[in-house]
Design goal:
Strand content: 5-15%
Number of domains: 2
Oligomer: single chain
Strand order of the largest sheet: 1-9-8-7-4-2-3
Order of helices and strands: HHEHEHEHEEEHEEEHHHHEHEEHH
Structural class: alpha/beta
Distance between the termini: 39 Å
Radius of gyration: 21 Å
CATH superfamily of the largest domain: Type I PLP-dependent aspartate aminotransferase-like (Major domain)
Number of strands: 12
Largest sheet: 7 strands, mixed
CATH topology of the largest domain: Aspartate Aminotransferase, domain 2
């Protein structure tokens, strides 16, 4: 695997491999023509395998965040009760979207850095039997926590409500078996473990969703699942397809399947273990609950007296390496380092050596280390 010269170590967008860049340089083709339809149909089968589903996977112009809106407006109506499982900033954002559309939101909150556990979900559903949808973040990017989707999915299916999974920073970097794990909608974006630029929303829709679309009363057009389904049957998209991005996504899926999904997932696990161990040695303790660590992003505390802003600026200015600050109330106290998609050990080693160097040059860090 080639190394990334810019060493973009934020948790998305992620480095773009040459194969994807080359694919995106292809000339435009008729987006309603046979050539595109054949390619798009093949891409559909690849995405089904990556999602672990037999159902449709829609690829539209948008970002991962579009999935929040699409999941709600196609299945629910104002006043419907939803259960939001929140253990980080992206769970909070999902709540914001649900409230914007008039949902009655009940929350299960876990301390940031901890996972959502199935027993807590069961208790909440027992207390609120009228919940129609459950909102879950697969891989909480703000804390580096991988939530137990399989266990939660079993509880939600037993209750009978729909399960919506924000898999933006996990899908293609961690296993997610949509059908076997009882997920009804799984959505992601092109700019994370799919190794493409931002601009595509990828939304998988299970069979149980369609009975709910009939009663959902929120007006929708651009994000209408029925239009997605009708267009996909013709090998196309409802509006003009973002051709270059779709060419790139096809090349990325080719890469993922050529490596083998099991190997891809194990590579991410191994690199996550490596990063957490090495950061801990540098006095930067990862915050994720043991046993629920993300394989695609590590979130670690900054040394005492050092803000995330200081560390980020020094890494950028001294070494040309880009990492991300924390979010919400953790903005200044943690940093987030991505290791998803087109990433190998040389980039990670360079990042760790640079962090070590930077900490040697920040006075507060030197004092704390004494």
């Amino acid at each position: 695997m080639l190394t990334d010269p810019t060493n973009l170590r934020i948790p998305g967008p992620t480095p773009i491999p040459p194969q994807v860049m080359e694919a995106m340089q292809q000339p435009a083709v008729p987006h309603r023509g046979e050539m595109f339809a054949n390619m798009f149909t093949e891409l559909q089968e690849q995405l089904k395998r990556i999602h672990g589903t037999q159902h449709d996977v829609y690829v539209i112009a948008g970002t991962g965040s579009a999935g929040w809106e699409a999941s709600i407006v196609n299945t629910l109506s104002p006043g419907d009760k939803v259960l939001a499982l929140v253990n980080g900033n992206f769970g909070e954002r999902y709540v914001t979207v649900a409230e914007h559309f008039g949902m009655n939101v009940v929350r299960v909150d876990a301390e940031w850095g901890n996972a959502i556990h199935a027993d807590d979900v069961r208790k909440a559903l027992d207390e609120h039997p009228d919940v129609r949808g459950v909102l879950l973040t697969h891989n909480e990017t703000s804390t580096g926590v991988l939530n137990p989707v399989q266990e939660i999915g079993a509880v939600v299916r037993e209750h009978g409500s729909l399960l919506f999974v924000d898999a933006v920073s996990g899908l293609a970097g961690a296993p997610l078996e949509m059908d076997a794990w009882n997920c009804d909608i799984v959505f992601s974006g092109s700019q994370k473990a799919f190794m493409c630029p931002p601009g595509l929303s990828i939304i998988a829709v299970g069979e149980r969703v369609w009975e709910h679309t009939e009663r959902a009363s929120i007006p929708r057009f651009v994000m209408d699942f029925k239009r997605f389904r009708e267009s996909l049957a013709q090998g196309s998209t409802p509006s003009t397809a973002p051709l270059s991005l779709i060419f790139g996504l096809k090349a990325a899926c080719d890469m993922l399947e050529s490596e083998g999904l099991d190997k891809v997932f194990q590579r991410h696990v191994d690199q996550g273990v490596y990063m957490r161990g090495e950061l801990d040695k540098l006095g930067m303790k990862p915050i994720a609950e043991q046993g629920f660590e993300s394989p695609t992003v590590t979130v670690a505390q900054t040394p005492e007296g050092v803000t995330s802003g200081q560390l980020i600026a020094e890494l950028r200015d001294r070494h040309g390496i880009h990492i991300a600050s924390g979010q919400g109330h953790m903005k200044d106290s943690v940093v987030r380092i991505g290791h998803m998609g087109w990433t190998d050990y040389p980039e990670l080693e360079r990042t760790l050596k640079a962090i070590d160097d930077v900490l040697e040059h920040i006075p507060a860090a030197r004092v704390a280390a004494v």
